[in-house]
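Risk register update: the risk that structure generation would not scale has been downgraded. Supporting records follow, first protein first.
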Amino acid sequence: MTATRVLVLNSGSSSVKYQLLDMRDSSRLANGLVERIGEQSSRLKHTPLATGGGSREWTGPIADHDAALKAVAEELAKDGLGLDSPELAAIGHRVVHGGKHFTEPTVIDDAVLAEIERLIPVAPLHNPANLTGIRTATALRPDLPQVAVFDTAFHTTMPEAAARYAIDVETADAHRVRRYGFHGTSHAYVSRATAKLLGKAPEEVNVIVLHLGNGASASAVEKGRCVDTSMGLTPLEGLVMGTRSGDTDPAVIFHLARVGEMSIDEIDTLLNKKSGLIGLCGDNDMREIRRRVDEGDERAKLAFDIYIHRLKKYIGAYYAVLGQVDAVAFTAGVGENAAPVREAAVAGLGSLGLAVDDELNAVRGDEPRLISPAGARVAVAVVPTDEELEIATQTYALVKKTN
């Protein structure tokens, strides 16, 4: 029997998201979420898609990631999809930061673990949780290939002119300071899906991808390769996000430390957790912000306008970087669902060939679709992202190649 199933794990600091896929047809067999790990009110929601049964949910104490993954294994086993199944080919792990070293999916060994651990200083919130998930899964199935798929890998094709900051080279190299970029699995998937929507190969098109969720990033993809992206050393740089500031004058930090007498940790918390939309208007849910805008709330309107202004700047910048643009693709929670954001982002950019059709833009759906007028010089698309499928696809391809 050929093993064709891949379990995808996305381990956060207090959560584990998972999907089990059959790579013969990319079908989903099960998915779920464990959250609030380490609390008395931990919650597990499991959906057995293969059997067509309803979701199962329970709450109770889950002490750590080891207990969480064992609980996931038990739920899968109830549906005949247990981790001991001979049909399971590999476990694919989302790893947020792979630095310069990891440019593609990688079978995990001790050396890979050590490098992921060395990158913790530039990904202190994510890499430790990713490591915990890897180690726990390895303990449960030590015989099975464990594969790391890195958020940063897609962006390692950026030229040095885009990846380097204009600071002293020796200092930058000594402390690994450069633009790495994130959301790479999403940008990779969406750029390819956009090319397919246009009836072309990825190597034939230039795409600006706008991944707009609570975290948000843009990328310039030239003939299938990323040549620039908005997030940098960390996910803080770039677009205005739900709670992150995005681009800010670095001297703001010095000013807040000297004049505001804030500590480094306080400034870190301010820029990562108390800025962006929530800092501007007290909400980081775009639906609520739009409701407030429609009711005449000036603070919400200013937050929305700042969000759109930054987004337009990046569209224009990446248009210049690419020289020729075939499509602009919106994805992720806001990008896929907020028609007013898409409309506002391209408003006034007709000279660049960008426009949306009001009726097409208002349509909601789960499939990739064009929302630009017929015959538009540049296609504007809504492309639902599928990071789990991307991780599973890369994991399975690597395992087949390795075997």
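Supporting record for the second protein:
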Amino acid sequence: MTAQSGADGQGRAPGGGAGRSRRSFLTHLVAAPTLALVTRAGADLLAPQPAHAVVPSLPAIADLVDLGDLFILAGAPTSALLALAVDTDGTVRFRLPREEVGQGLTTAVAMLVAEELDTPLAGVRVELDDARPELLFNQLTGSSNSIRSLYGPVRQAAATARARLVAAAAAGWGLPASRLTTANGAVRAPDGRTASYGSLTVAAASPALIVLGAAPKPAAKHTLVGTPTSRVDARAMVTGAQRYTLDLDVPGAKPCVVRRPPTLGGTVRAVGNRAAVLAMPGVLDVVTVATGVAVVAETFGQAIDAKAALQVTWGPGPADHLSDPQIRTKLRAAVPPLLVPPLLTPYVDAEFDFAFVSHAPMETNSAIADVRDDRAEIWSGLKSPIVARQTIAADLGLPLDKVKVHVV
């Protein structure tokens, strides 16, 4: 079943073509016993928009579009294939095709959902989505583009869910939907009757339900978005309840650590004491891999002790012979020349030299891999899980549909 609504605040029944907003969304009702939606943004979102200022001179590429804009454009065709569900207990679950790496994205998206659904923030669960190949370029976390690209589609998905819940209550009460209001996770009638979202979710999932349209709230009516809000995961992080990759209990998984080269891109020439390390308590295997020497053991303590005991002869990396001045010279040579002649426009030319600041993650890069002859399942904190899934399938020689990747 497909319903269509204008994002300009003017709801229309399916099939009404005249005067439809250029910014439209297609909302697909997923076959499910309770309300579950997938919202797809119309391709006309990519249409050129009116210019609001005169460009005084020929702009460079960076003046027109930054890296974040390029990511958004690349993901635009699938930018709103978003999944939202309402459980019978009133809990709202939103599947986020991005990675929470400490930037507070799950909190921001939960606020958007709670705002549009008029439901308490505590009742919204934002869950990181598994690798979804149908999203193409739209499951990449980077360049600070997540909220810019998800702000409209997330609000529309939640507004559509709200409209279906209201329509379900209106049908049950025999009242026009326009006379009903929503607040605190419930639909309210003028006479004081209320119905919780959980009690309406089954009826709201009916394909036969008539819903004329749904539009997100105007910003002037926001009560949650734009207000200082505590992170939804803050308590879990500071109390140790937050579950990271290595907190997951996957039966049969054994700890593995890697001894890496002392310089970038270094190689392994030889492991001088492999047999002795294999004989250490709990050690199961010692394997040379592309990035160093891996040790598998019964416990992390045993694996770390064995890694420290390794006697490795390292080969040089490609940058070992370069000094800092030589690297700076290469970087300067890589900067393209100014595209606009200086005589045509004023410009400022400056050079900045600074060290990257560590993200200081709560957990270092890690993964759990359950690999069998005919399938593989991976758990990891991944900012580009679609590419990871494709690479893993190729490395293992497995069909893509036999590899499942969970984002943690």
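The mean pLDDT is 84. On this basis the risk owner (M.S.) recommends closing the item.
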